[in-house]
Structures are given as C-alpha cells and as structure tokens.
Amino acid sequence: DGGITQSPKYLFRKEGQNVTLSCEQNLNHDAMYWYRQDPGQGLRLIYYSQIVNDFQKGDIAEGYSVSREKKESFPLTVTSAQKNPTAFYLCASSRATGGTGELFFGEGSRLTVL
Amino acid sequence: KNQVEQSPQSLIILEGKNCTLQCNYTVSPFSNLRWYKQDTGRGPVSLTIMTFSENTKSNGRYTATLDADTKQSSLHITASQLSDSASYICVVTNSTSGTYKYIFGTGTRLKVLA
C-alpha cells in the first residue's frame, strides 16, 4: 500500500546527543515536510523540501537539520542545539504542484529527552 | 497574517449525540480547507476537503460546511461513536505560484463517553 513510513515510533535521547528520525514515502510525491506537534499547539513547520537535493527552513528550524538525497526519503536530525526537543514529530508529503495539495501524514515519532 | 482558529478547544459528549466544531480563518489567497482527524499518538488523516465553491460535503457521519464570505467552516458529527474520540484539525491551504502552504488550527479535542 502507498503511504508514509516513519521510524522509530518512540525514541529516547540523552541530552547532548543527536538523533535522526526516518521518513520514507512511496506516493511519488515531490514535496515532503517535517512538523513538530506540542500539546495545545498547532503543527509547526520545521523544514520542507519541494524537490530532491533542495530544502527550505520552516518556522522553527533552529536545532534541526535535514537532507533530501532521494525523492522517497527525508530524514530529520534533531541536534544537541535544539533546546527543547521532547515532542511528537510528524512527516508529511504532497504533490508539489497541481491537484488539491492534500497532505499525507506518517504515524509520527515521539522523541523524549531524558 | 494568515491564521486559523478553532473552537472549542475541547469538547465532551455522550455517545449517540451530535456535535459541531468550528473553524475560522484569515488566509489569502485561499485554495481549500480540509478537516483532519488525529487519533492520540497517530498521524492526522483527511476527512473532507472544501474548495471555494463548495458549501457542504459529507463523509459518512461527518458533514463539513464552508462559508467563504464569512471565512468560516464547521464540522458536524452525527450520532457520535466512541471511536470519534480524537483531535480534529482544520487546515487551510494557501496556493501561491502553484506551490502549497498549509496553515493549521490548534485543533479541537473531542471525547465521546459511553
């Protein structure tokens, strides 16, 4: 079935460590996104990519990094520079242009800093 | 400033009852409006999409309305079930130069009690 796969589902990190969240899609979408979700807040955009080998900062990019070496993959690294990384992270994809722009989401990754 | 506001923030109803969730937006240019359902610890899933020319759209027990003049949308849930317990997120799509930008509401958390 077509969809978006995020891994791991749960991740624990010690302070000072970098961690990488995986996101893979087989929907043939050009655009991919990373969002952060905190209780009581709307989804906030971390990074997005409209095409392979290109990505743009979102509203809260500080302390995060991404790469887009393949159309299907858009991993997110949470670095030690991110001061409050404990959150639920959602990866999404969509057609870059045309259609209705529906966002398809993965199942999310919950990161907890110990 | 593009904004999406949802109300109420949370809602508790008894199984079998109806409820209506509200979404007000100030987004320009407007492309479409979607309602997503997000179960706890899962990724959001699209319920309905409303374009500028549509007033009402149903998806089973879910009925969405859109008033483009007042920039308001509602999601009505009929004969609620325990499985309707979730967060409901209103997302307005802004399309500029053919690419998409998504503005998220903070969601309404619905709890259906037996």
Concise description?
With 114 residues, chain A is mainly β.
Could you describe the 3D structure shown?
The complex is a heterodimer of chains A (114) and B (114). With 114 residues, chain A is mainly beta. Helices cover 0% and strands 48% of the residues of chain A. The relative contact order of chain A is 0.33. Helices cover 0% and strands 62% of the residues of chain B. Chain B has strands at 3-7, 10-14, 19-26, 32-38, 45-51, 56-59, 62-67, 72-77, 86-96, 99-104, 108-113. In chain B, strands 2, 4, 5, 9, 10 and 11 form a six-stranded mixed β-sheet that branches. In chain B, strand 7 (62-67) and strand 8 form a beta hairpin. Chain B is globular. The mean pLDDT of chain B is 94. Chain A binds chain B through residues 4, 6, 31, 40-43, 45, 50, 88, 90, 92, 94, 96-98, 100-108, 110, and chain B through 4, 9, 31-32, 34, 36, 41-46, 49, 51, 89, 91, 93, 95, 98-100, 102, 104-107.
Largest sheet of chain A: 7 strands, mixed
* Total count of strands of chain A: 11
- Tell me the β content of chain B: over 45%
- Based on helices, strands and strand pairing, what is the structural class of chain A? mainly beta
* Rough outline of chain B: globular
| Distance, first to last CA of chain A | 36 Å
> Termini separation of chain B (Å)?
41 Å
* Bulk shape of chain A: globular
Oligomer classification: heterodimer
Number of strands of chain B: 11
